[in-house]
Design a protein that fits this description.
- The protein is of the alpha+beta class.
- The chain is about 35% helix and about 25% strand.
- A hairpin with a 2-residue loop joins strand 12 (about 310-315) and strand 13.
- The chain is globular.
Length: about 325
């Protein structure tokens, strides 16, 4: 099948784009797009580089298109915001097949539609390697965005769901594929967590509206690193309890089968895109009442204290784990 051309690519994007949306004055077709919104914007940008952030040999283009957007929407979710508009910058090898980029774009527009977010512009260029850069603009909640720097001593530490799943999925898809090929269906939940992460936009907005959350971050580089970002910004420490950390049974099975360190998978694996956040001291019961009925209720995993760093409490011992997650 023929490789892509810029004209063909732009025409596909143009036909798929929404030209009218709340706050959108001018979309694709002019030198600039023009948007309007009350108050401030939340703005985030991420780049995905083949061979660094993804491996196209096992990452289907449709799911990679979804993931390219999801990782940015997760940043907006981490501040309690509503994603509104997206810009794309695509560096594409000249010999990239059209069916690949077409399927990738289908994934992009699928997840944008799910979150009522609109692609409003960007750029395409031929390059020696495949690089996708996404910029997302979002609206903060009326109560104000949730930052990393407001956690305080006495707050409790929570996560939105299971940890380490995406890291386990990556091991299955890459160096461990041949080892467990016959039982890969058993690990489908882990594989999906890596290939098709879900940005927790609705939960982030609800957490912000609760008025009980003091600091929040999405888990893109592992709990050990991303909780450390909150602690450093807030000038506090955190102690988490190993027995409280949530994870799927499949992850435990995988670690046993492949002789992997389960704690390391849970604490240090990147790309879970769960939310880690702190709840005001003394408000734990009120928070649990508000969120116990959710499909996947948040889990309390520790406490905020004085000092600095993130510590893991296990078997009567406390070990510092600050910034031990994924590094690009």
């Amino acid at each position: 099948m023929a490789a892509w051309t810029e004209h063909r690519l732009i025409e596909k994007i143009r036909k798929a784009c929404v030209n009218r949306a709340d706050g959108l004055l001018t979309s694709i077709g002019d030198d600039c797009c023009e948007v309007t919104a009350p108050g401030s914007f939340l703005i985030s940008m991420d780049s995905l580089v083949e061979g660094v952030h993804f491996d196209s040999s096992f990452h289907p283009p449709h799911l990679l298109g979804r993931k390219s957007i999801a990782v940015n929407l997760s940043d907006i979710a981490a501040m309690g915001g509503r994603p509104r508009f997206v810009l794309l910058s695509l560096c594409l090898p000249e010999d990239l097949e059209w069916h690949w980029i077409s399927s990738w774009l289908d994934g992009v527009f699928e997840i944008l539609t799910e979150h009522r977010c609109v692609l409003i512009g960007g750029d395409t260029v031929k390059a020696g390697e495949l690089v996708v850069t996404v910029t997302v603009l979002g609206e903060p909640p009326d109560s104000g965005a949730i930052y990393r720097n407001n956690a305080a001593e006495g707050d409790t530490v929570w996560v939105s769901g299971n940890l380490g799943s995406a890291g386990g999925g990556l091991r299955i898809l890459s160096d461990c594929a041949s080892t467990i090929a016959d039982s890969s269906a058993h690990y489908a939940s882990l594989v999906k967590a890596h290939l098709d992460p879900v940005p927790l936009v609705a939960l982030g907005q609800r957490l912000a509206r609760s008025g009980l959350v003091t600091a929040m971050q999405d888990i893109s580089d592992g709990l050990a690193t991303d909780l450390a970002h909150i602690c450093k910004a807030s000038g506090v420490s955190a102690t988490i309890t190993a027995d409280l950390l949530p994870y799927l049974p499949e992850l435990a099975n995988l670690s046993k089968s492949l002789h992997l360190d389960l704690d390391k998978l849970i604490l240090c694996s990147g790309e879970d895109y769960q939310l880690v956040f702190t709840v005001k001291g003394g408000c734990e019961d009120l928070f649990f009442e508000q969120f116990s009925e959710t499909v996947s209720a948040p889990v309390k995993i520790g406490m905020i204290g004085s000092g600095a760093g993130v510590f893991l409490k296990k078997g009567g011992q406390s070990v510092e784990i600050s910034f031990q997650g994924y590094e690009h």
